[in-house]
């Protein structure tokens, strides 16, 4: 009986201590940091699409056009690691009215353009060599990790400022951080969907400039719990 009472006493003390630990005064806030930067590179996704009623001929035409596109890209001295074939397909399309099959062949290539001054030259070149579908253009920064770090620091500063503002009204101060949660979503640059354009020329005979990259925003979000002093 005495042993049972001793065990119950120890459990009661342990539970009391646990409750005291849980009752540490604290404040939880969110913080957001944003960094706006001018992009210095772009990922371009383009496709050669050919159609016809003979599968072999359609695929052959598609291969020839893509070969010309790749030759142009190599001529522009892009790093071989910066472009790759993304998708290849050859699909039958049955025409129920004419009761026969046609074929649709596509090859998609993704290009990382590290020098945006070559954008118009590249786009006009690939279109002239057989690209007939521009799927999307995504502007991004080569210093993404650096800007993400800056955004995280700004988010922490905002969280600390918020907490300080709230507790100052109560005559209290914030202490050390108890928990920090990163709520940032993976960074996905906003794609710019481009229409197929003809190779327009200016009055002087030079290609027109069609790129307006603007700015991209890199965002970080955190949740922080501070002890109250």
From TrEMBL:
GO terms for biological process: DNA damage response. Residues 1-18 form the signal peptide. It holds the Pfam family SIMPL. Keywords: Signal. Coiled coil: none annotated. InterPro entries: 26kDa_periplasmic_antigen, SIMPL/DUF541. It comes from the Bacteria. This is DUF541 domain-containing protein.
